[in-house]
Amino acid sequence: MNDGTIGGDDPARPGLRRSLGVVDGVAVAASSTAATTSIGIGLGVTAGVVGPHLPAIMLLAFLPVLGIAGAYSRLNRVEPNAGNGYVWVGRSLSPWLGFTVGWVNIVASVAFLAYTTAVTGSALLQLAGRAGLHRIGSLGLDPDSTAQTTALGVVVLAAVTVTAVTGVRTAARLQTWLLVFEYVVLLGFCGYGIVSGPHSFSLSWFDPFAIPSATALAQGLLLSVFCYWGFEAAFTVTEEVRDPRDASRAGLITLVTMLGLFLLGSVAFQRVLSEEELAGHGAQGLAYYGDRLAGEPLAALPLVALMFSAVASLQAGVIPTARGAFAMSRDRTLGPVWSRISARYGTPAAGTLLIGVLATAVAVLALMIPRLADMIMATVNAVGIVVALSYALTALAAAVRFRPLLRTDRRQALRAVVLPALAAVALLGLGGYLGWSFYTSADHFELSADNGWFLLLMPLVMIVSGFVVAGWAKWVRKSPYFRTGAGTDADSPKLLTPSN
């Protein structure tokens, strides 16, 4: 074991500093999951697919995600690593599949950061409008314009990226205070909405069999899985917590908390808003909900909470993505720039800054989709498919790794083998079915959020590009990862470097 720094006390091999506890891990994971953003935006997007059955789809999606969480927790106990799924899948299934998990997590996170950048800008423009600022010179401020929201959001992304460079502890403290404010506002407004909403409560909201079609069910489930996505951020900082078991606790605590918040939010929104209102307001859904419940200045509080949630999720998105790239770089599956550790802050500073630059570039490319609501729909669908693939492969890795328990401890085998395997099959089936439905829903390609071929192309590019980069790592970088599938462990006595 080392002295609290990965790589020990050898100054030639600096590592990530162990400084976090379980509360810090919860702050990072909860900020990455971004419940306020998911409720304020994701519920409207999902309602457009499944109608008024939001509580049902959130509960249904929780079941496979719970199986995935069990796989993460069990694997983290035996092999804590910043690369988590990339390392676990590479060792248990295949280095190529392991690299795919690591790669799609990085590209999906960059896409998420790009879309959250625009959401942050939209929240700021909405707040400016409430303050009476509707124009700057001849420019009319429009919170649904991807150009304006992206430009403003990129400024915020730059600021939070710099904060992330200074250390996870600093970022976790900031996120803790942001989360406290968000949750107080969210619980207050959702609780009041449930009590005072004009629409009658209906048990049919919890009936998954009333969802309009199998395609709507599959798409709704993947959109809901996307809402839960981020709880595993606690495992990407597992090398920076004082006890790796704290990462497992933080991930599970975050996941259960998200379930409660999503159910509360979905019931509250449907008590206050009609189905058409919920599905039709996109990125401005939470602000509209606040307006229906209160007058100014109280009505602005949900919007402020959304802004804080978006800012926190930007920072929380940068942190685990940079750690995943760090783990891959020290195995030489990515370039050495990703594993350079700042001597001052003990963080992968260069990689963190590079993640911010890449997210900015993707956000600029997303300007080809002029409406923010359309860009959100396209991004969420693409990320939902690749996240389902990543989760499924990680769960399969757990099932394969712990399969001897089927003969020795059936109780443990249920949690470590059977449930993860069932979750993996469910997510792979959903992703495959949704991909096929996208393919058959169109007969031509069009750069549009409602074109099936475009929606299918985005996740395919994310996945296929990973095999290209993996080939470069195997045959050009000659990464040892592709011989063993084993990543550099957190307490390895010698980190891999480009020279050895």
What does this structure look like?
- By secondary structure, the protein is mainly α.
- Helix content is 70%, strand content 1%.
- The protein is built from 19 helices and two strands.
- The chain has helices at residues 22-33, 35-50, 54-78, 85-92, 95-130, 146-165, 168-196, 214-228, 233-236, 244-272, 275-280, 285-293, 301-329, 349-365, 372-401, 405-408, 410-440, 452-475, 481-484, and strands at residues 135-136, 139-140.
- Strands 1-2 form a two-stranded antiparallel ribbon.
- A hairpin with a 2-residue loop joins strand 1 (135-136) and strand 2 (139-140).
- Helix 8 packs across helix 17.
- The radius of gyration is 22 Å and the shape is globular.
- The two termini are 22 Å apart.
Please describe the structure with a list of short key phrases separated by commas or semicolons.
500 residues, 19 helices, 70% helix, 1% strand, globular
Summed up, what is this model?
The protein is mainly α. The chain has 19 helices and two strands. Helices cover 70% and strands 1% of the residues.
